[in-house]
């Protein structure tokens, strides 16, 4: 029975076989004829293939020869499609021949070529064929793997015919194991459903008869009848119809419908005989015998079985032969012919042994083959591994080369960048050097500029002294003009007075007034005093100018500061006295006071210069007090004890001495306090101050390593403090 | 006729009195002295209208300068003649003085002949 289940194994093969078996000779001749005219191209490959297929039903060796021709030419042309088809056909030929191992190898070649040309349908077909071969070899697991793989591909392609075939083949594999019979029914039903969406009568019929067989095995006769009837309607008259017909016969016999049963058996046998299908005929006869035995028509059953035995032996259908022997044995035993029963029993056993032996051989062969295959695969794997390793090595080498190259490039880049860096550094260094030189030059320039400035300043001070002298000339002109005015005019008026005296003396004694003469003479004397005074005044002004403009060249000598202070206080007091008429005038009396430290050490100074400083400060103090309005106020309030007063004091401070000049004058406004030491700053009217006095004083004290500071409060007074190092 | 002389140099009074001794003795001339601008203004304000008809003022004085005094006199008593007497004979001071209304500008040392001439001219009118 099982042989029908791989009816879908080589669907193409069967179709070709069935259709062309009649006109075979004619067609092969025409193919051979046209073959000679063809060049070595793909068309010739197809021709070899067709020719091989023509012989597949009649002469497998010839078929294989033409397939090999096709393969050899296909290899020469590297015509993959042709190669794939040729290997597929050759595999089918081997499978038909029972050379499963060779079949597997051929199918594997076909698979490779289909894969190369990306023919998924081809791949799915080959996988299905391989699965069927493994099923025949008894390796159900591998068979299922391949069928499922094929199914997956078919589903991807959405090829219904292929899906149906794979589902059917899977069902067939499951059916072999009684434990998975239900699964097989499921797959057969799915197969039928898929085939019903197609035009494939053969597919639908095969699925239906397989379902029917499963139901028959499960003794569900109604269902079995239904599906076998369905199959029969689809394939009646063809070889395929023999299986459902035989099954229907047996089922009806089980149900006691012998008339119906014999009808089915007869139809099956008719078809087998008509198509000269000996295998199907054997099976049909066995089925008929079973029905006859059920009918207890033992003689007919034995006759039928004997006929089946002859054909089975002829076609070497061992399973069927065992079936025949076992049935004969049972029938003979049942009718009491124990000898015949025994003989048949022995025969069955021996065929079984043969089957077992061949099965064992097959198994051994299979195992050997598998082993060889595994070995080859292992070798291939090893080779592959080797190649991989080599590739890996090459890859590694490449990596190393690339890495080295990369490294080299990096090195070059780094070198270049370093070189550039170095260059830029050098540049920067050069620049820095240049800048340094520049800075140096600049510094020298600045220094020389500073020196120049210093000398310029010195010159300026000197020239400013001269300029102030020039300024003074204008200002001092006034100062000198005034005494000169008096000198000139008093001498002139004195001359006039003497004229008057002479005129008076020229008068007669009685008219002459001696009193008048005496009075005029007194005036003349006063005038002469005035002339002397103003002459001296002019002299002092000129001397002051000279002192101011002359650069100091004095040398340092230990000096008694106390006596220096006393001297200059006196000088300045008298200097002011001689200058300013209002000083000893009716309003102002300035008092002076000294508060000198007797323990003062001698200090190393240039006496003339420090003297000038004291002179400046003291003159300022006296002039401040000489402000009429202010001094009048002070004088008016004698009760306040605030008479105009200048105090000079000295103090020993260990490593330095302090000189203080204090007045109770109007004070210095805050707005100008910080300007008083600036050169050319003055508050005095034109000609009365050069603005250099305090500035020069400051420079002189600095030159002595000392300090000069001022403390002043408006309306209360001013104090200048000079400190000098001992 | 009263004439005011303003100068911070006090010997000016003695000089002027000796120079004008004849004029003050024989003619109707009276000399008044002030030693600052402020003092001069005080004298001018003693009577209203002031009996001083002529002011001779020094320019360079502590406190109020002669030019300031000139402006003040011309502002308050425009009828009084003012002439400047200065050691500074520069054009700057001269122009300032004339612009402010000074009648004459005398330079030191004082040429008393021209001064007497000026006073005599004034007395004639």
From TrEMBL, chain A:
PROSITE patterns: HIS_KIN, TPR
Coiled-coil spans in chain: 425-459
Pfam families to which the protein is assigned, alphabetical: HATPase_c (PF02518), TPR_12 (PF13424), TPR_16 (PF13432)
Protein name in the entry: histidine kinase
GO terms assigned for molecular function: phosphorelay sensor kinase activity
Keyword Oxidoreductase: no
Enzyme class: transferase
TPR repeat boundaries on the chain: 84-117, 124-157
Organism in which the protein naturally occurs: Aquiflexum gelatinilyticum
SMART domains (alphabetical): HATPase_c, HisKA, TPR
Classification lineage: Bacteria, Pseudomonadati, Bacteroidota, Cytophagia, Cytophagales
SUPFAM superfamilies reported for this sequence: ATPase domain of HSP90 chaperone/DNA topoisomerase II/histidine kinase, Homodimeric domain of signal transducing histidine kinase, TPR-like
UniProt domain Histidine kinase: residue ranges: 475-726
Reaction(s) this enzyme catalyzes, per UniProt: ATP + protein L-histidine = ADP + protein N-phospho-L-histidine
PANTHER family xrefs: SENSOR HISTIDINE KINASE (PTHR43065), TWO-COMPONENT SENSOR PPRA (PTHR43065:SF42)
From TrEMBL, chain B:
Response regulatory domain mapped to chain residues: 2-123
Entry-annotated residues carrying 4-aspartylphosphate: 58
Lineage: Bacteria, Pseudomonadati, Bacteroidota, Cytophagia, Cytophagales
Any one GO BP annotation for this protein: phosphorelay signal transduction system
Keywords assigned by UniProt, alphabetized: Phosphoprotein
Protein known as: Response regulator
